[in-house]
Amino acid sequence: MKKRLALCLIAALLLLPPVPARASSGNTVITAEPYLPDIKIEVVVPASGNVYINPNRLPIEVDASIENKQIISDSLAIENLSDVPLSVSVEVTGTIKSGSDLRLASESTVGEDTTAKRAFMFFEIQSASDPSAVTWSNVYREDKHILIRESTRTGKNIIILGAADQAKRYGVFRVNGDCVQNPRDAWTEKDGVNVEVAFTFSPLPVGTQIP
Amino acid sequence: MKSLKTRILSAAMAGILAVSMAIPAFASSTNIEGSYQDITIAVLVPKTGTAQINPYGLPVKLNTAGQSITGEQIVTKPLAIANQSEVDLAVSATVTASIKGDLKFLETAPAADDTSKSAFVYLQMKQESTLVQGGLNTEKTGFTDAVLDPVAAAWKQAYNADKDLVLNSRDTGASKENMVFLKKGTAPSGGGDIMDIAAGGAAMFRLSGAVVAGPREAWTAADGFTSTVAFTFKPDTTAVNATIDKTELTVAAGANHTATVTISGLTTDGVNITSVTWAAAGSNATVAGSGTNNTTGTITGAAVGDETITATVTADNGMTYTYTVNVTVKA
């Protein structure tokens, strides 16, 4: 009889750990250096403008419209032609014309019981995309406007102008205010004020939000 | 004698039979052998990169074709990584940095009145589906500028504390896991082990941020920093915990049945479903998605026969996950 050897093999299941999450890696070294090209600041600034003292509120044509306020000025504009937005600071200095006894007031003369020859004048400026389409508020606000006195008043970072290819690249400004209508010594042609406005421009990053 | 012989023979036969019955049939062997399946992770990673501190966000030209990056105070020449592996990958990063000059890193964006020479710099990554195998350079060492530059020029991405990695000057740097996910490669077109880069298999990365434009001590050429971005790639195990409530469905022709993909708390790191796309392979049934993120699929039998409905779930980790409903349409 042929002996038969029964081989009973037990299947061996080798339980190995699941495929490990073998990590791999790689490095990138990034070197950062400043990019500092010369920034060309180019702004068109008007050389002069006119301010009219109009005590009797006569109609005066300014910028193709009729105004009858007591202090009327041309609406002037600076224009930013730079590649970057600019923060604008101003220094405003009032100088009474020689021979005039006019005095600059620190607050509105409206309703004031005085016969002194006084004018209340303030400087206002706002950024705009279209200098001919600007709306003004005639109410003086200490935080927005600069009082014109016979000393230099400063408005630091008073507005931001958009870059040349941005909206609001214009800064439209004017002088506003009021005056005593019937002073003891009547208004004459000798009366007047020179207002000197000195602008300082500081570059801002491209993309700065223009209020 | 003959009878005895017969009896002996019979006894012997019976014995053999008995023995043969007692011994089990010869067993065939089943040898199941477990073995380690190695995963080769291959990722294209650029060795170096350059960035510029650009205080005024001036346009920085990328090429002579006129493409530039504008309005960014930290500008990085376009960089990308690409998955050439057989598996989806989760990408983590550790960034260390060393400073030149008197620059200091901030952990938040600089305040408007900050006059210190400081920078808020962070690593950003984004999966970029337009970067595929065909965009590689001749040497296959990275993508061509012609492919990378337009993407970089159009890349506008605000800082996101959950996704971006802020640089600091500590020795240990800063780390973030699963910053981006890369789809696995496709079969290599040129042979070999390195897979071709599939759509979704590459990601752009950059340093971005904000700096103080006009510090008290002006920016000079001596200022700057060097950062090392150490990427770690792991097989993507952030499976989406989406479940479909029916995988087999029998409908009558013209009847509606609803199969729903339920989107429940995706496993790790805040992965979320962004959309579900439903499709029928044939014309025996139709499917229409509805509900938030299209997570409900309404299946309608059209003609008798079998139909395969597929729900493709897209997650905000950039990955997609597919679920199938086998539909039988009866008369």
Query: What is the CA–CA distance across the termini of chain B?
Result: 79 Å
Quaternary: heterodimer
**How many β-strand stretches of chain B?**
21
Structural class per helix/strand content of chain B?
mainly beta
Low-confidence stretches of chain B: none
Describe the sheet with the most strands of chain B: 6 strands, mixed
Average residue-wise pLDDT of chain B: 86
The biggest beta sheet of chain A reads: 6 strands, mixed
Query: Approximately how much helix is present in the residues of chain A?
Result: under 10%
Q: Strand share of the residues of chain B? A: 35-45%
Helix fraction of chain B by DSSP (H/I, runs of at least 4): under 10%
Shape of chain A: elongated
pLDDT < 50 stretches of chain A: 1-22
Number of helices of chain A: 0
The succession of helices and strands of chain A, N to C, reads EEEEEEEEEEEEEE
C-alpha-based Rg of chain A, rounded:
35 Å
- Tally of DSSP β-strands of chain A: 14
The string of secondary-structure elements of chain B, in order, is HEEEEEEEEEHEEEEEEEEEEEE
Structural class of chain A: mainly beta
Mean residue pLDDT of chain A: 87
Q: Rg of chain B, please? A: 31 Å
Q: What does it look like?
A:
- The complex is a heterodimer of chains A (211) and B (331).
- Chain A has strands at residues 24-34, 43-44, 51-53, 60-62, 65-67, 71-73, 76-80, 86-96, 103-104, 118-128, 146-147, 152-161, 170-179, 193-203.
- Chain A contains no helices and 14 strands.
- In chain A, the strands form four sheets. In chain A, strands 2, 7, 9, 10, 11 and 13 form a six-stranded mixed sheet that branches.
- Chain A is mainly β and 211 residues long.
- In chain A, a hairpin with a 2-residue loop joins strand 4 (60-62) and strand 5.
- Chain B contains two helices and 21 strands.
- Chain B has helices at 2-22, 145-154, and strands at 43-44, 48-53, 60-61, 68-69, 74-76, 79-83, 89-100, 104-105, 118-127, 165-166, 174-182, 202-211, 224-235, 242-244, 248-252, 256-263, 273-280, 285-290, 296-301, 305-315, 320-330.
- In chain B, strands 1, 6, 8, 9, 10 and 12 form a six-stranded mixed sheet that branches. A four-stranded antiparallel sheet of chain B has the order 14-16-19-18, with no helix packed on it.
- In chain B, strand 3 and strand 4 form a beta hairpin.
- Chain B is elongated, with a radius of gyration of 31 Å.
- The model of chain B has no long low-confidence stretch (mean pLDDT 86).
